[in-house]
């Protein structure tokens, strides 16, 4: 058997990869034909591939490497914990120090009385936990009919059966018989694509009021919770009109349903506050966390719940758990990651320095002939590509996916940007410098110009 190393020729690595490795959200045959890009190392906001290209990572991996790559403190935290206690579980009346310390720290940084953490290995698993937790909560309170969770179309909440069901991605629901029962989706607040003749303000209210209508239609006695990302990420960084969140909050305050903020992307500084729900002005009953919790250095997620939910769940045996709940190495790394965020004042840096700088540069992209709206909240931004800004027109189907074409140009120009249809998105590491933002924007403009030349 061949020993596989970073020093093998790229083509050989690609061939072996395609032969045995099935990739997520990919067409395996296309991957086999083209060959995957092989990433070999990373530092700060830069990743390097097997051809020696230095690429600026405008997506922080998958929206997760908040403190940037190459953090020796996180390496040391993992090594120390590996040596001391590489694994033990927290089932059956046991615990360990990394779980205790991380939970205390999360209770400190989370808003309001969100003081209790149920861990998972990922954001998807944590959302599965949430489904079972909110239904158990209502059953324990003597309201077992309250089972339905209202979510939004084009939301992303993960890839497990539960996570993908909560999510509103048509392509995911089309495979494997989803969604599971008792999940209901209202429309998303995407004014650019769906606002028609309404003003953004009218549209924001119309979309928020769909929640109230859904509660009426489904019956308040049957609705357990509403789940939302404070800013939809994988759906294309959809920033709702200003009227949207206050109206959602009014509705949630009026009805007896739990509010779940999926903070998997928005948490840990991405929007300029510790959590995205703080940025949009509401306090949830439950928060889903993952990604920035460990800056992606270890797989870990969880649900942070408030005192009320914890007290109700705490009174029963909650028959739910994962082998890797509060994995000690992952927990130790997550704790050290939060220490870095605090000690280096990364959230303050985002809020007061780098996000305002990026915003100014990002919003200027709206002057590009192919860019309609340019939206940004903290360190997550999107641009909508269009052949005609005034009418917010979409590209003709035979133009190919213009977003895909532009993403390929970004790759060629050593910039990682993602596309969702004809929306281009960024979510760079939070520690990116102003000079690196300039490089990112320069490469984005070049890629858009080249993309436009290929479309026309
Ligand atoms: N929730 C949101 C908002 C996400 O963006 C994601 C992943 O992108 C998830 C949940 C799922 O997290 P994971 O991929 O860790 O399972």
TrEMBL record:
The keyword Transferase applies. InterPro entries: Aminotrans_3, Aminotrans_3_PPA_site, PyrdxlP-dep_Trfase, PyrdxlP-dep_Trfase_major, PyrdxlP-dep_Trfase_small. Its cofactor is pyridoxal 5'-phosphate. Transmembrane segments: none annotated. One of its GO terms (molecular function) is pyridoxal phosphate binding. The keyword Transferase applies. Keywords: Aminotransferase, Pyridoxal phosphate, Transferase. It comes from the Bacteria. One of its GO terms (cellular component) is cytosol. CDD domains: OAT_like. Pfam families: Aminotran_3 (PF00202). Belongs to the class-III pyridoxal-phosphate-dependent aminotransferase family. NCBIfam families: PRK07480.1 (NF005682). This is Aspartate aminotransferase family protein.
């Amino acid at each position: 058997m061949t020993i596989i190393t970073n020093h093998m020729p790229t083509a050989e690595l690609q061939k072996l990869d395609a032969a045995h490795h099935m990739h997520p959200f990919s067409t395996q045959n296309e991957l086999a034909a083209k060959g995957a890009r092989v990433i070999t190392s990373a530092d700060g906001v830069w990743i390097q591939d097997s051809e020696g290209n230095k690429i600026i990572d405008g997506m922080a991996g998958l929206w997760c490497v908040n403190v940037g790559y190459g953090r020796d403190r996180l390496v040391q935290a993992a090594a120390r914990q590996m040596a001391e206690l590489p694994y033990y579980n927290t089932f059956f009346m046991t615990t360990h120090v990394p779980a205790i310390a991380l939970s205390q720290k999360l209770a400190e940084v989370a808003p309001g009385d969100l003081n209790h953490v149920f861990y998972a290995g990922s954001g998807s698993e944590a959302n599965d936990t949430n489904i079972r937790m909110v239904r158990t909560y209502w059953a324990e309170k003597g309201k077992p009919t309250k089972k339905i969770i209202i979510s939004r179309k084009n939301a992303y909440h993960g890839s497990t059966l539960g996570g993908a069901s909560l999510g509103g991605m048509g392509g995911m629901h089309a495979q494997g018989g989803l969604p599971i029962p008792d999940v209901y989706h209202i429309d998303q607040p995407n004014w650019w694509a769906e606002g028609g003749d309404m003003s953004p303000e009218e549209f924001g209210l119309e979309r928020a009021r769909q929640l109230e209508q859904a509660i009426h239609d489904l019956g308040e006695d049957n609705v357990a919770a509403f789940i939302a990302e404070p800013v939809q990420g994988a759906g294309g960084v959809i920033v709702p009109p200003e009227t949207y969140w206050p109206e959602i909050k009014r509705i949630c305050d009026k009805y007896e349903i739990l509010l779940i903020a999926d903070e998997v992307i928005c948490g840990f500084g991405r929007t300029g506050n510790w959590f995205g729900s703080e940025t949009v002005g509401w306090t949830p009953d439950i928060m889903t966390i993952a990604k920035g919790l460990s800056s992606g250095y270890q797989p870990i997620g969880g649900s942070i719940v408030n005192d009320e939910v914890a007290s109700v769940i705490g009174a029963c045996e909650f028959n739910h758990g994962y082998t890797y709940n509060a994995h000690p190495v992952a927990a130790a790394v997550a704790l050290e990651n939060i220490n870095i965020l605090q000690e280096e004042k990364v959230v303050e840096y985002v809020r007061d320095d780098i996000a305002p700088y990026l915003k100014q540069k990002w919003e200027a992209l709206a002057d590009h002939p192919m860019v309609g709206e340019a939206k940004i909240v903290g360190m997550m931004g999107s641009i909508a590509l269009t052949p005609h800004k005034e009418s917010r027109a979409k590209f003709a189907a035979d133009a190919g996916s213009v977003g895909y074409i532009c993403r390929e140009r970004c790759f060629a120009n050593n910039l990682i940007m993602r596309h969702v249809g004809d929306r281009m998105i960024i979510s760079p590491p939070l520690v990116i410098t102003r000079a690196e933002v300039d490089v990112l924007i320069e490469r984005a403009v070049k890629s858009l110009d080249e993309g436009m030349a290929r479309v026309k």
